[in-house]
Amino acid sequence: MSRAASGQRPAASADTLEARDLHVRAGSFPALQGVSAIFRAGEFAAVVGPNGAGKSTLLRALLGLSRPEAGEVCLLGRPLRAWPRAERARTLAYLAQGEALPPDSRVRDVVALGRGAGEWKWGLLPTRPWTQADEDAVTDALIRTDTLRFVDRRVADLSGGERQRVGLARALAAQPRFLLLDEPTNHLDLAYGLDVIRHARREAAGGLGVVAVLHDLNLAARADRLLLLCGGRVLAQGTPDEVLTPAHLHAAYGLRVRVLHDEGRPLILPED
């Protein structure tokens, strides 16, 4: 995203996921109105804003799950609509808010569902032979999310934070170019919430593009870039320092806040 805290669209490159002047309706409601933003491989971007701002709608549009009435999404320099479904699924991985995992399945089996680019279904046999590349991708995803140590446990026996990491591992097993997370820290305690953010930052440092919808502004401040939505429009985008200002947060949330800094990151404190 642009360094400027504005709705202007910055220059794109081939290694990006881009929203271009998106207009999306949810029924008769204009959920997104002229939203433009660029998300780059190797960056962790957070999408923030009040309830109803259009955050999850934007994620769905970026995935091709919500069709815009105007504007378009471009993936790696190509219009998303031009991508074959299976190729798109290999390139964009998605972890939905509160996504349910099969409770009686083993962790390894759930992570293995990430292979096949959406061709695997719960309880069905794979549509192609399992390969060593599949096995290696699953093991790598388990290691990267620190879930290898409970690989043989049932999902039902895991804590909420452990399940979230298993869901993340399943998404990473697809070896995507971009990872989209819808409120991945929702219903998690502080330790597990920070754990998710650390994993997101680590994946971005390794070259993956990570886009996460977050409600907690102090967790979002740990991202490389922020996109602040309000009323379906871009209110600001840029670095955490550029976006998380008292003026922007008052305009978006109607709250007076103080912005301090802790280890170089903005720290948001509501005023009494």
Automatic annotation (TrEMBL):
PROSITE patterns: ABC_TRANSPORTER_1, ABC_TRANSPORTER_2
One Pfam family of this chain: ABC_tran
Protein's name in the database: Hemin import ATP-binding protein HmuV
Keyword ATP-binding attributed: yes
Presence of the UniProt keyword Repeat in the record: no
Residues in ABC transporter domain copies: 17-256
Annotated organism of origin: Deinococcus carri
InterPro entries, A to Z: AAA+_ATPase, ABC_transporter-like_ATP-bd, ABC_transporter-like_CS, P-loop_NTPase
The entry's keywords: ATP-binding, Nucleotide-binding, Translocase, Transport
GO MF annotations, alphabetized: ATP binding
Superkingdom assignment: Bacteria
